[in-house]
Every structure is written in structure tokens, then in C-alpha cells.
Amino acid sequence: MGHHQEHGQGHGHGHEDIDWAEMAPLLESQAELFTPLYERALNWLAKEVTEPGLIVDAGSGPGVIAALFAETFPGARVLAVDGSEPLLERARARAERQGAADRFGTLAGELPGVLDELDYPADLLWASRSIHHLGDQRAALAACAERLAPAGTLAVMEGGLPTRFLPRDIGFGRPGLQARLDAAEEERFSRMRAELPDSVAAVEDWPALLASAGLHHTRTRTFLLDLPAPATDRARAYAVAVLTRAREGMAEDLDADDRAALDRLLDPDDTASLHHRPDVFVLAAHTVHTAVRPV
Questions:
Q1: How many domains does the chain have?
Q2: How confident is the prediction along the chain (295 residues), in pLDDT tens digits per residue?
Q3: Contact 189, 159 (CB under 8 A)
Q4: pTM here?
Q5: Tell me, what CATH number does 125's domain have?
């Protein structure tokens, strides 16, 4: 469950079977939950990147991170790029609410091709968990690198650690449920990657991939989201949403005992469920890789 559990961002890709307008409130709420992590990542970037003129969020989703960029870099123009117009509507509304509408724009289209429509090269191009939805990640990074201004920075949020919500032993079922869910998710993620159009296998050494795109001065940093028990309503809802998706999407990868344990965890009438138990937390680690286009 380390790859795409909080889809508040990372939507530069076409999943025609997903109704993004319907998903939007959940995506927004989940991205807001991760705001402390994103703020730390952006504050780090602010030390790495000198006053950018144009920031592009490639795969912006409903614009939670794009709006944080507008806040972190008050002199910059921010462009949210996504394949879903309903999500971009939310991004524009958010920018308006925070008084940044005059320097906030949106561009609808699929990555990476839509980046050819940029009016200006980007001083900072951010891609949060959107590259791994593209068949040829190396080619996608090269396309991103081409849209950078000289000395511009490409920042890619990929990898980190699987998110944890529960202790190893939850009092029923076999201990270690989340570790087994993570293993099943890795299999599902590999299948997803293999089925993408023009899928190319690549060693997920992101600094090496960035260097192969002609960039240099690679840096890597991991940021933590630590929301300890007892969980807030929003954190609890996030845990429920992630494990509900796991139950629906990975049922055939789990044994009967684990399916039964998940059913208990998701049953609002069960006092030992995620809805009621006092030991629910959210602990996540996301990694950001950056590199710079030569002057």
C-alpha cells in the first residue's frame, strides 16, 4: 500500500474507468491530511530552488499541493496540470479561496504530452506519484526535463515506505496483516505497471533515472507524516478508505483469514473496527528526488 493510497495528487494519467468528479472530495480530504508532510517537502525545496518564476505541478489532482506551492513561493506563478477537468476545477477554487487566483492557472491533458503546451519553460516542475502511472518512466522524465528552464529543477515524489495504521497484533486474525497487504499491493502495482501502454521495465533508482534525463545535482530526501493514536476523524476516515480499497482490489490475493480480519476492521458495528478502536494511527514516509537542468 505504499504506492498510491492517497490519491490527492498524481493524476496526470488516464484511468477512464474512474469517475474523478465523484472521487474528488475524498482525494482532497486525503491530500489535506498529508499537508504537514507536503509542507516539510516544499520548505526543503524552497531552500534548494531560488525564487522560481513558473512552478508546474504535473499530475496535480484537486490542487492541494499546487496551492501549497503558491503559498510557499509567493512570487511564483503556479500551473496545475492534470488529465481531469473536474479535479482542476477544485484546484482553481482552492487558489481563489486563498487569494492566489491571479497567479494560478490550470492545464488539462495527459502526461507527458500535455507539457508541450506550456507557454514558458518551468523553473520548478513537480510530479507527485504521477510518473509511475506512465508506461515509459525514463521517457516521461526526459519529457519533463525538456520543459525545464536552464537551471530549472525537476522534483519527483516517488517511493518511501508503506503507510501504517495499526499495530502488528490487532487482537484477532494472524499478526502482521498490514505487511501481507503491502506484499499483495506490490504484486498489484507490478501488474498495473506491466499493463500500461508502452510499458518499459526500469530499475527504480530515481537519481539514476533523473541523471539519464540529462539532469545533474541529484538530491534525495524523505519526509514523514506522523499522526499518532488516537486518530482524528479525518485520519480514521483515511485508514478506512485505504483498507476498503485494499479489500475490494486485492481480495483474490489474500487468504480467507485475512479477508475475514479486514471485514471486521471495516465493519462500523464492530467495536474492534477501524471506526472505533483507539489504537488507529497514520505513519507515512514519502521520498522526493530532485535534479537540475544544466545551464
A1: 1
A2: 444 434 334 443 344 467 877 888 888 999 999 999 999 999 999 999 989 999 999 999 999 999 999 999 999 999 999 999 999 999 999 999 999 999 999 999 999 999 999 999 999 999 999 999 999 999 999 999 999 999 999 999 999 999 999 999 999 999 999 999 999 999 999 999 999 999 999 999 999 999 999 999 999 999 999 999 999 999 999 999 999 999 998 888 899 999 999 999 999 999 999 999 999 999 999 999 999 999 9
A3: no
A4: 0.92
A5: 3.40.50.150
Domain that includes residue 148, residue range: 20-292
Q: Give 83's DSSP letter.
A: S
3-state secondary structure 136-187: CHHHHHHHHHHCEEEEEEEEEEEEEEEEECCCCCCCCCCCCHHHHHHHHHHH
How far, in Å, CA of 207 to CA of 222, rounded?
A: 14
